[in-house]
Design brief:
This protein has three helices and nine strands, in the order H-H-E-E-E-E-E-E-E-E-H-E. By secondary structure, the protein is of the alpha+beta class. The N and C termini lie far apart (57 Å).
Length: 186
């Protein structure tokens, strides 16, 4: 009986922590409303990010988004490992945490574990996006091209600072190679 209680308690703690991390977003951040998922699909180049272990030593990082048959979004991330001198990729899936017109998602590369993925700013033409993770340790500036106009960059950095991000810690991603994972889709 004691083992059952411990097992149930442990399962409850794990389930609660998974639930809490799924839909998380930094306190002062708000996901984009009126979001149009179809327009977000395709290739995005990572312009800047905070350093964390899954992207350690990566340059030429890009993400590709497409719909899966079940309505979730397929995520293919790739980049060139500058230490190992080889391309890396990882495939996952993302689900909306609310409705599909609110850009609050949870993404998983290692099911059943999910992390927050929140588009907190996007331009009208869906060319540039600012993405927040579950807390102030995760932030990405994305572009459809390998560069981002200075005006957009400064606007995104200003918003990130208002939320509480230390933007001086951003890594600016080099794009000097063509990814073998790149598709011709937008």
């Amino acid at each position: 009986m004691r083992n059952k209680i411990i097992l149930l308690t442990t399962a409850g703690i794990i389930a609660t922590s998974l639930f809490m991390s799924c839909s998380s977003i930094p306190k002062n951040a708000k996901p984009v409303t009126g979001f149009q998922p179809k327009r977000y699909l395709g290739n995005w180049y990572e312009i800047a990010r905070f350093d964390y272990r899954f992207e350690k030593n990566l340059s030429n990082v890009m993400a590709q988004y497409s719909f899966l048959d079940n309505g979730d979004i397929k995520v293919l991330n790739s980049g060139f490992d500058t230490k190992k001198k080889k391309w890396k990729s990882s495939t996952g899936s993302a689900k909306f945490t609310k409705s599909t017109d609110i850009a609050a998602l949870k993404v998983s590369f290692f099911k059943p574990f999910y992390a927050g993925y929140n588009v907190i700013a996007i331009d009208d033409n869906y060319q540039y996006a600012l993405v927040a993770g579950r807390n102030l340790n995760y932030l990405w500036l994305l572009s459809r091209e390998k560069t981002m106009p200075e005006k957009v960059k400064q606007q995104f950095l200003g918003l990130a600072k208002e939320i509480g991000y230390d933007v001086s810690q951003l890594i600016w991603v080099e794009h000097d190679m063509v990814s073998p994972y790149a598709s011709n889709s937008k």
